[in-house]
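Quick start: read one record
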Amino acid sequence: MSSLTVLSNDPPQGLISSDASQKRFFSIAPPAAVIFFVLIFLAGAIVTLDHKENRCRPSGSEALPRGIVHDKSNFEMEPLGGNPERKKDGRPLKSLLAIPVGIKQKAVVHKLVSKFPASEFVVMLFHYDGVVDRWGDLEWSDQAIHVAARNQTKWWFAKRFLHPDLVAEYEYVFLWDEDIEVDGFDPVKYLRVVRREALEISQPALDRRSQIHHRLTARARQGGGGDVHRRFYKSTGHGRCYGNSTGPPCTGWVEMMVPVFSRAAWRCAWHMVQNDLIYAWGLDFKLGYCARGERWRSVGVVDSQYVLHRGIPTLGAGGGGGDNKQAASRSATDRYAVRQRSYDELQVFNRRWREAVAEDGCWTDPYQKPPATNKG
């Protein structure tokens, strides 16, 4: 009986081993899989880049070629003739001085503005009484920016005419009241101190004859040492600032009549200024959030350069004719209305802040003290 022996290294058809099947699968599948995942990755990267590109463009400019977009500006006056692309390299970086003014305070404002050299400062006047033409006899008036709107406040003007993109080319923004005496103040020396001390928000110290609302801003008495103080201590009496005080108005705080902002600090503060709250009461206690870093370090009062705040009431001062008795009565009524709205705005701002904090789950207050724990 004969037998048939099959001499072959291949298994019979239909009996292919599972190992061979796996080898054949893995010899084909990996390149295809790699290509597939690479294509998916590239598609995702393209979508991400496109999204990032649109996100990084100024809102509203997405339909324009990138190179044509100029989203920053300034208050530099341009000549009517000449080369529009003239070289501007090498020009000193300027700062901006913005002041609300009325014609009754013309002499004080002239003295104030004259202290600021035109080579280093741009001047912008907010005419709250609507009178512009009677400033033209001052030598610096033609180079100043004049904005007029009757019976509006400094913060109303600032919100509408000092947008961060318009002041992005200025190193510092001085947003001052008009009733400021500057006999003891030099703006150039002031900025030297501010730069050296890395102050994001600052103010010149107030002469002790000034109208002072919080003792932190009063000029430190001679012998204290240094050009700047950032903290006020009062261990006795009725004051509420002590050695462990970490917030405004004991530290990280400036008055609202002569604040000075770095461009970064102003960009933040401008967003915080409410469009409908024209006195900005309550804003001073929150400015430290815009100081980039610890407010006790980045907010300070410059003692070596100081001013006198005269405290002249200008808004709601009456006017419009009538005898002295009628004018005085109208002025008192108007001043009361200003004061009442200021207090009302303080309550509104504080309520809005509380609501914003409660609603924003992504924001953490860097100055919020941790809740006390009972160790029993």
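The CA atoms of residues 180 and 352 lie 32 Å apart.
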